[in-house]
Amino acid sequence: MSTLIYPPPTEEEKPILLEFRNRISDIILDEIESLDIHLIKWPRARNYDLDRTERMIRRSLEWRKSYDYENILSWELPLNYDIYFPYQISGYDNGGSPVIIVPVCEWDVYVRKELMEGRKELVHRFLVNLTAKVMQDVKTRSNVLDNRIISQCVIIFDLFGFNIRHLTSVSVPEVLLESFRNFERNFPETLRVAYVINAPSLFALLFPIVKKMLSAKTTSKVQLYDGNSSKWKKALLCEISESNLPIKYGGTLPDLLQKKIEAAKLVSENGGLGMSGISIDALNTVTIGAGSKLNLDYDIKDSNIKISWIFKSDAHDIGFLINHNKKEVVPKRRINSQDIVNEGSYICPGIGKYTVTFDNTYSLFRAKTLHYLITIEDSKYANEIIEKSSK
Q1: pLDDT (tens digit per residue) in 275-326
Q2: What tens digit of pLDDT does each residue of 154-175 get?
Q3: Among 50, 59, 63, 166, which one is most buried in terms of CB atoms within 10 A?
């Protein structure tokens, strides 16, 4: 049987699989997950130790509940996450497994921003959402291919641009590694192969440490390539046709991933605001004096009204918070909006006065130039903005 297709249970494995089924008879699995070729993954991942296997699948169920995995595909992504964290499901390998491309270093500035502002869990939820999309693709393919059950995926991690900064600020490696470990714990044997391409010699020093944090079975599926594109393109094309890879990776597909990367850069360069399509010129521009703050008051007349914001500062950070009747509902944070445009929203649970504040009171000597836009989902539910700058 081709190594591109995950093998079904052998005759020796069938009694083990039967016992495993009996042990987890109280667990409800969907039609695809309950197939022998999917269920055998769990015992294989734990070397057929059924006590460990049972603990593994039950812990996975708890993990799924914690992320509401059954409904994660309907979760509304935070604004612009689809361009802040670019990836591409480019097609399928020669065995039918989905191929996912992740340009690791393009995530760096955005992951650091989210972690610094206390949104690590939001990043992980996004990665769970991405995992669910891949798994849904796997299941869909399993339904449409005659007599072939697709049960694995291929990941291409592109390390182009990896440098010493990524070792001194390890936010992206840590987040991806933690996500990868969650993947192997909760979707065992689903990774067919991981290609790590454009890896500099610096990463080769880090890789032995990474290997210790993953299972031996997972690390055995990792193929590491340096920046010699002729070598890694040859490896990719051995198992993935040109029609299932972007041009940049040796294929013929349009490079949609590069378009996402360029869109993300617009967020922090030349006043662009990513997918919002709004330029800096369209925003309100104010100077907030040293030790001062800008308050924007909205008298909201109905519940479940969305307040959205877009802002960017010149050269320095700014504080941001929202109060409802003098009580913080969006906690105060100092945001590095000089590096990246900040975009977000808040659903007002009730009526009353909501105050959006840009705070520079912590800066005793430096004024801040701020470009901002605050919008209300339906303006008929809010009075005109009252702006005031105060010490």
Answers
A1: 444 556 668 899 999 999 999 999 888 888 888 888 888 888 899 999 998 8
A2: 999 999 988 776 666 656 677 8
A3: 166
Q: Which amino acid is at 329?
A: V
Q: pTM here?
A: 0.68
Token pair for residue 278?
């709004």
Query: Per DSSP, what are the bridge partners of residue 309?
Result: 344, 374
Please give the pLDDT value at position 383: 41
Q: Which residues of 210-229 are buried (b: 16+ CB within 10 A; e: fewer)?
A: beeebeeebeebbeebbeeb
159 vs 227: CA distance, rounded Å:
9
pLDDT at 215: 86
Please return the burial class of 205, using the count of CB atoms within 10 Å of its CB with bins 0-12, 13-18 and 19+.
Answer: exposed
> What contacts 24+ positions apart, CB below 8 Å, involve 66-74?
67/125, 67/128, 69/128, 69/132, 72/125, 72/128, 72/129, 72/132, 73/129, 73/132, 73/133, 73/136
Provide the pLDDT for residue 167: 65
220: left (phi over 0), alpha (psi -120 to 50) or beta: alpha
CB 350 within 8 A of CB 324: yes
- Residues 73 and 132: beta-carbon distance below 8 Å: yes
pLDDT < 50: residue spans in the chain: 1-2, 144, 270-277, 379-391
Q: What is the pLDDT of residue 390?
A: 38
| Amino acid found at 37 | I
* Contact predicate 33/56, CB 8 Å: no
DSSP class of residue 388 equals: E
Distance CA 59, CA 53 (A): 10
What span, in angstroms and rounded, lies between the C-alpha atoms of 254 and 246?
A: 6
